[in-house]
């Protein structure tokens, strides 16, 4: 049998708890024990941890956030930190550390493995879906749902006053969440980091689209989804440029951290449960320095080195649909 430690690191995401639960139950099935470190790598450095078992993970699958808490830990990049972490893991007789987080967290796991002889396994947990090696990350589906529900509400009020709304959606430097949210909310235009060329080009397209849209549709509410970190100067700059060009009243809305919260939708629970169980299986198979993902319905194990430094393209078929019904509808 093997003893496991688990931690969640970086931005929290709905479904992290479901992953912890799966790891604990799968590990107990094999007769092993699990501890959970608090606040990401911070807990690993300070040996702040608690025992996890079937009782502590009961009723956990539906809870948002992460019961282990998450955290950023800049000092974990140092050699000394990795050595301290290795000593702490050895003191607790841990065979395998499971890290739930984003690419930064996986870089941390790879760094640790240079100084620790145990196994490290990553589970992709972030609402941004910006991790290669898996079609979706844990938390992504719930965040889409939250963004879409919010944009639906924005549309109700936009329709009432015939206004132009800008809605900023999270995603760090990736447009997955913005793209899916824009399609599912029937928004009129979407600005994505992967496709952004220039301010002028976007403004011209929006102006043309708005003009045609107002001819086509009786009411003239118009919703533009904007991925965060794309527009130079942010939503306020875009808002004033558009107001100047169109003479319309613009209302900017930043959805913000609501997108990281909430009870996970079933797709995230199922993904987290499958990946968590597979992580334990991979540990028994002797795998090390890998991330567990799901691609085309199959569980896949990818070396952390391939996950950390690669970028993940938007799904071509989704982009195609977006170009037909959103950005280039009148092209
Ligand atoms: P998200 O993208 O959802 O915010 P993330 O895992 O990418 O998640 P980061 O803040 O980039 O979030 O990284 C989380 C933590 O991982 C850092 O605070 C640090 O403790 C650790 N980490 C990141 N990069 C490295 C590195 N190169 N070496 C060691 N540890 C690292």
UniProtKB/TrEMBL annotation:
Catalytic activities: beta-D-fructose 6-phosphate + ATP = beta-D-fructose 1,6-bisphosphate + ADP + H(+)
Localization terms from the record: Cytoplasm
InterPro entries: ATP_PFK (IPR022953), ATP_PFK_prok-type (IPR012003), Phosphofructokinase_CS (IPR015912), Phosphofructokinase_dom (IPR000023), PKF_sf (IPR035966)
Main location: cytoplasm
EC top class named in words: transferase
Record domain Phosphofructokinase: where: 4-282
The protein's annotated pathway: Carbohydrate degradation; glycolysis; D-glyceraldehyde 3-phosphate and glycerone phosphate from D-glucose: step 3/4
Keywords: Allosteric enzyme, ATP-binding, Cytoplasm, Glycolysis, Kinase, Magnesium, Metal-binding, Nucleotide-binding, Transferase
Taxonomic superkingdom: Bacteria
Cited PROSITE patterns: PHOSPHOFRUCTOKINASE
Documented EC number(s): 2.7.1.11
Molecular function GO labels: 6-phosphofructokinase activity; AMP binding; ATP binding; fructose-6-phosphate binding; identical protein binding; metal ion binding; monosaccharide binding
GO biological process, one term: canonical glycolysis
Cofactor(s) of this protein: Mg(2+)
KW Lipid metabolism (keyword) present: no
GO cellular component, one term: 6-phosphofructokinase complex
Family named by the database record: Belongs to the phosphofructokinase type A (PFKA) family.
Name of the molecule in the record: 6-phosphofructokinase
Native species: Alteromonas sediminis
């Amino acid at each position: 049998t093997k003893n496991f430690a688990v931690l969640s690191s970086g931005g929290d995401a709905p479904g992290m708890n479901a992953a912890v639960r799966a790891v604990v139950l799968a590990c107990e099935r094999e007769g092993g024990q699990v501890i959970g470190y608090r606040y990401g790598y911070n807990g690993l450095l300070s040996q702040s941890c608690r025992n996890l078992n079937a009782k502590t993970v009961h009723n956990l699958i539906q809870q948002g956030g992460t019961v282990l808490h998450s955290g950023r830990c800049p000092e974990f990049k140092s050699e000394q930190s990795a050595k301290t972490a290795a000593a702490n893991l050895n003191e607790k007789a841990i065979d395998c550390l499971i890290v739930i987080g984003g690419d930064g967290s996986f870089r941390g796991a790879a760094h640790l493995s240079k100084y620790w002889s145990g196994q490290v396994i990553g589970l992709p947990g972030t609402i941004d879906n910006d991790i290669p090696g898996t079609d979706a990350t844990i938390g992504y589906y719930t965040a889409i749902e939250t963004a879409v529900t919010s944009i639906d509400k924005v549309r109700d009020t936009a329709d009432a006053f015939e206004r132009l709304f800008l809605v900023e959606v999270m995603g760090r430097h990736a447009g997955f969440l913005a793209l899916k949210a824009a399609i599912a909310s029937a928004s009129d235009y979407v600005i994505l980091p992967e496709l952004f060329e220039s301010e002028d080009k976007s403004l011209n397209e929006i102006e043309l689209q708005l003009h045609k849209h107002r001819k086509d549709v009786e009411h003239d509410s118009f919703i533009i989804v904007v991925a965060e970190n794309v527009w130079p100067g942010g939503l306020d700059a875009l808002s004033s440029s558009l107001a100047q060009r169109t003479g319309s009243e613009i209302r900017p809305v930043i959805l913000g951290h609501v997108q990281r919260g909430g009870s996970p939708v079933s797709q995230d629970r199922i993904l987290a449960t499958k990946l968590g169980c597979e992580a334990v299986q991979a540990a028994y198979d002797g795998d090390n320095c890998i991330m567990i993902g799901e691609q085309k319905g199959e569980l896949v194990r990818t070396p952390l080195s391939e996950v950390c430094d690669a970028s993940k393209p938007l799904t071509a078929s989704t982009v195609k649909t977006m170009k037909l019904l959103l950005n280039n509808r009148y092209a």
